């Protein structure tokens, strides 16, 4: 990494929010990943804009990271700058039946805020272990609902450092897809539109969904959530289970015996272990069922 860039960052930002050679296994729910050359926690959109412009000036690549809940970081880590959207950009405020949310806010916290304010529409997200920024990026969803149904607008910073506001009809939302997967814009703030409802009714729905999630998913182990996208006409977990792959293990990575749609870290798994296991599952499901599985999780970084 360009040492002049690091010195420039040291002179511009609080040193407690800049970390060199930061192990990314501490910043992903899989607890896997090599080091980032430089990790930065911004506090607001202006800081995101400033550091993106600085990285462009010094020719440093940029990677954007939220809660790391749908990501596999390879063992070689990530070169250049990683902008980590965390609790320093997690403000939540209400305007009528809208909520304005910082990109680092966790979905479960936003859903809880909505419930306390008697606002319905985010119940489906109460158990998704991701940030708002990541949820927008992936159009996260569960229990027959998704972010698309509540997003009004998204404030971003472009790779050139321009601040732009996207409205819902510009976001190209689809199944686990948004326009941001092709644009490299940094999601900084989102406006969500909800509807007034009885807070006790909302809470009952959230408790039911959390119970269903906890009873079916392997939450006792680190993972990146559902490993594979749902193939048309099938469920990935069902296909994997019918292929007899529950418990299949490579190194420290295992197809969960509780829910075959999850690959879990049963102890010091490497990204290579996970990738080899993904490949093995894909080949065997394809051979038995003639169905191709595609990863839902994003795989980033150096081998």
Structure, explained:
With 303 residues, the protein is an alpha+beta fold. α1 (3-12) packs antiparallel against α2. A 5-stranded antiparallel β-sheet has the order 6-7-13-11-12. The protein is 28% helix and 24% strand. The model has no long low-confidence stretch (mean pLDDT 96). A hairpin with a 5-residue loop joins β11 and β12 (163-167). The chain has 3 domains: 3-84, Uridine Diphospho-n-acetylenolpyruvylglucosamine Reductase, domain 2; 89-216, 2-Layer Sandwich (Uridine Diphospho-n-acetylenolpyruvylglucosamine Reductase, domain 3), CATH 3.30.465; 236-300, UDP-N-acetylenolpyruvoylglucosamine reductase, C-terminal domain (Uridine Diphospho-n-acetylenolpyruvylglucosamine Reductase, domain 1), CATH 3.90.78.10. It contains 7 helices and 18 strands. It has helices spanning 3-12, 45-58, 107-116, 132-138, 199-216, 236-242, 271-289, and strands at 18-23, 35-40, 62-65, 71-73, 78-84, 92-95, 98-102, 119-120, 141-142, 145-146, 151-157, 163-167, 186-193, 195-196, 249-250, 253-255, 263-265, 298-300.
- How many structural units, i.e. domains? 3
The radius of gyration is 20 Å
Report the strand count. Answer: 18
What coarse outline follows from CA principal-axis ratios? globular
Rounded average pLDDT: 96
Low-confidence stretches: none
SSE succession: HEEHEEEEEHEHEEEEEEHHEEEHE
The CATH C-level name of the largest domain is Alpha Beta
CATH architecture of the largest domain: 2-Layer Sandwich
CATH fold-level label of the largest domain:
Uridine Diphospho-n-acetylenolpyruvylglucosamine Reductase, domain 3
Structural class by secondary-structure content: alpha+beta
| SS summary, helix count | 7
Q: How much β-strand is present in the residues?
A: 15-25%
Q: Going across the biggest sheet, name each strand in turn.
A: 6-7-13-11-12
Largest beta-sheet characterization: 5 strands, antiparallel
Termini separation (Å)? 18 Å
Helix content: 25-40%
């Amino acid at each position: 990494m360009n040492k002049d860039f690091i010195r420039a960052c040291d002179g511009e930002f609080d040193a407690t929010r800049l970390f060199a050679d930061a192990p990314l296994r501490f910043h992903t729910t899989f607890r896997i990943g090599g080091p980032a050359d430089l990790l930065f926690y911004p506090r607001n959109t202006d800081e995101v804009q400033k550091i993106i412009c600085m990285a462009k000036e010094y020719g440093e690549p940029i990677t954007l990271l939220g809660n790391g809940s749908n990501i596999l970081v390879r063992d070689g880590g990530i070169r250049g700058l990683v902008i980590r959207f965390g609790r320093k950009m997690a403000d939540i405020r209400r305007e009528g039946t809208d909520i304005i949310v910082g990109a680092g806010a966790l979905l479960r916290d936003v859903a809880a805020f909505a419930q306390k304010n008697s606002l319905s529409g985010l119940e489906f997200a109460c158990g998704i272990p991701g940030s708002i920024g990541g949820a927008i990026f992936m159009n996260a969803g569960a229990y027959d609902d998704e972010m698309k149904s509540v997003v009004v607008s998204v404030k971003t910073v472009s790779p050139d450092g321009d601040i732009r506001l996207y409205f819902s009809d510009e976001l190209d939302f689809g199944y686990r897809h948004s326009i941001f997967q092709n644009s490299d814009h940094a999601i900084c703030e989102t406006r969500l539109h909800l509807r007034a409802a009885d807070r006790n009714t909302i809470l009952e729905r959230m408790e039911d969904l959390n119970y269903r999630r906890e009873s079916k998913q392997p939450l006792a182990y680190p993972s990146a959530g559902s490993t594979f996208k749902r193939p048309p006409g099938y469920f990935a977990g069902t296909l994997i289970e019918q292929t007899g792959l529950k418990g299949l293990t490579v190194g420290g990575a295992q197809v969960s015996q509780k829910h075959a749609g999850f690959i879990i870290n049963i102890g010091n798994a490497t990204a290579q272990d996970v990738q080899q296991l993904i490949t093995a599952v894909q080949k065997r499901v394809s051979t038995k069922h003639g169905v191709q599985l595609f990863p839902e999780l994003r795989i980033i970084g150096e081998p």
